Amino acid sequence: MIVVGAGRTGRRVLEMATNEGHEVVVIEQNQQRAQEASTDFDCLAIHDDGASVEALVEADIEDADAMIATTDEDATNLLVMMHGREFGVPSLVSSVNDEANSRLYRQLSVNVVESPHGLTGEYLYRAVQRPAIQDFMEVGKGAEIFEITVDQESEIAGLTLDEAGRKGLFDDETIVVALERDGDVVIPRGKTRIEAGDLATVFSLDGATSETTAPFMAEPW
């Protein structure tokens, strides 16, 4: 995983990624921040411009499975994402500082997080780990409501809620609140069948963990 930017948001991403044992390379243009990242986290820190091809190649972009841009400059983040798309990085996530620029990122099929200063790096990290999650909101301590698209290869696709419950795909602390299908919103009941492509709104007391999201995904992290 490559992280571009080691500011407040980038450091939170580094903390979460290294704590979960991922191999991480961070590129930071500020020398002091780069040194602090190298000292504080189990990662390789490169003091360079994250938007330069040379720095990205040094960070082994050709073998990277994910890249997260966290700088406070949209021009830098966008260029980083363009390089990521060019090199075929499977998962690309970027913070967006000016909402007006979101369209440019989406044209590159980049998963974006708007107004990052009001968030922590946790959202960016979640977005790259579980790209099927469209949005999430914390509700109290640990609980979350999140939106996730049902993959056609997922365990739950084609099952009713009752059938999913009997197979143990959900526990008592997870509730499918709504399904958006073909522009319509369905309030699901036990006999409601979940279809591939549905956008499911899910409430979980444990949050959007890998265990909670796994039934909706083909290859859960």
Would you give an account of this structure?
Helix 1 (8-19) packs across helix 6. The relative contact order is 0.12. This protein starts with a strand and ends in an 8-residue tail after the last helix. Helix 5 (102-106) links the parallel strand 5 (91-96) and strand 6. The model has no long low-confidence stretch (mean pLDDT 87). A six-stranded parallel sheet has the order 3-2-1-4-5-6, sandwiched between helices. It has 221 residues and is of the alpha/beta class. It has eight helices and eleven strands. It has helices at 8-19, 31-40, 53-58, 74-86, 102-106, 121-129, 161-166, 210-213; strands spanning 2-4, 25-28, 44-47, 66-69, 91-96, 111-114, 133-138, 144-149, 174-181, 184-186, 199-204. The protein is elongated and about 60 Å long. The protein folds into two domains: 2-129, Rossmann fold (3-Layer(aba) Sandwich); 136-216, Regulator of K+ conductance, C-terminal domain (Alpha-Beta Plaits), CATH 3.30.70.
Strand-helix topology:
Elements: E1 2-4, H1 8-19, E2 25-28, H2 31-40, E3 44-47, H3 53-58, E4 66-69, H4 74-86, E5 91-96, H5 102-106, E6 111-114, H6 121-129, E7 133-138, E8 144-149, H7 161-166, E9 174-181, E10 184-186, E11 199-204, H8 210-213
Parallel strand pairs: 1-2, 1-4, 2-3, 4-5, 5-6
Antiparallel strand pairs: 7-8, 8-11, 9-10, 9-11
Helix pairs in contact: 1-6
| Gyration radius from CA atoms, angstroms | 19 Å
Oligomer: single chain
How would you write the strand order of the largest sheet? 3-2-1-4-5-6
Strand content: 15-25%
Let me know the number of strands: 11
CATH architect. name of the largest domain: 3-Layer(aba) Sandwich
What does the largest sheet look like? 6 strands, parallel
Low-confidence stretches: none
Reading the helices and strands in chain order gives EHEHEHEHEHEHEEHEEEH
Sheet/helix structural class = alpha/beta
Name the average pLDDT.
Answer: 87
Work out the helicity level: 25-40%
Instruction: Give the count of structural domains.
Output: 2
Number of helices: 8
CATH H-level superfamily title of the largest domain: NAD(P)-binding Rossmann-like Domain
Distance between the termini: 14 Å
